[in-house]
Amino acid sequence: MTSIYSRRALFRSAIAALLVGGLVSGALVLANMAETEPTGGIGGPFELTSHRGEAVSDRSLRGRPYLAFFGFTHCPDICPTTLFELTDLMKELGPQADAFNALLISVDPERDTQNLLSLYMEAFDPRIIAVRGTRKQTDQALSAFRATAKRVDTEGGSYTMDHTAGIFLMDADGRFQGMLDMHEPRETRLKKLRNLAEVGGA
Amino acid sequence: MKRLFTPVLMFTLSLAAGPAAFAHDYSAGDLQIDHPWSRATPMVAPVAGGYLKITNTGAESDTFLGGSSPIAKAVEVHESTLQDGVARMRPLTAGVTIKPGETVELAPGATHLMFIKPTKVFKEGEKVEATLRFEKAGEIKVEFAVQGMGAKQPAENEDHQGHGATP
Question: Which InterPro entries does the annotation name (chain A) (predicted)?
Fold first, then answer.
């Protein structure tokens, strides 16, 4: 038989359990956020030059959402594929894709000269801009996006670049909104890009 | 019996079958080579990919070592990986081993051939000549069918390549 006192105690401990549980789950959510967001802190300063010779920086991009991804022309696979698929998605969005900027940031400025990039980019949607800088400026851009790129020497004096592959979605204030993954279903990618165009979010 | 076929003989046979082989398959010794294909490249692209399927119908392993092409400085076997959000590519200098009974597919985003410094732009609908080199089966001349820039698999298996068309 349960006394009034013990019922109260039970009630109190239930409340306490709820509170503790809430705190614990809250803490878990926070911990989880910290864990699943290695991309935190994205959106620092960078200064680069487009394949058309225009200066492009985090400041010049303000006022309009944008997407950015890293790549290089000596990459036969993921880079042209990303560019092609982006071209395809932007074609489907039509004028809606005018609402955001799209940047390919070269991780290989030594080989990706402005001239090479300007010829290379002719194969893709003209709204996509390839940008490059000095090694230092490139490193600064990588750091702004918490991205990595590493030169790996191969036989015969050549080299390749390991690099972060996803597409960063940034709002009109240069704040990170999320990633676009080319492995996601087409509808998901279109939705993210529409969202970026409409509200500047992902 | 098959073992008696020398690479040279198979090479000659494949050449004879070449123009008529609409199915776009080749063989070298005990190896079946299925539909070599590539993708259109942007102007001035310093590299282009090459993809194909190789089936070993024999009793011994063979190794695919890459090859050569009259329109590229080199043709190498490379491997692309995507791990923890980082894309990597490495030449497989030791080649790719094809065990007896095994089919190895070289495909976008995985192990692939890389045409290095192509001297011409790969245009959709065109063919690119190359000679493939195997450790045991020797060399075989093939043509890579150039598909669209965003093609993900050979056209024979996929005739509805997305070009922005809504389903």
Answer: SCO1/SenC, Thioredoxin-like_sf
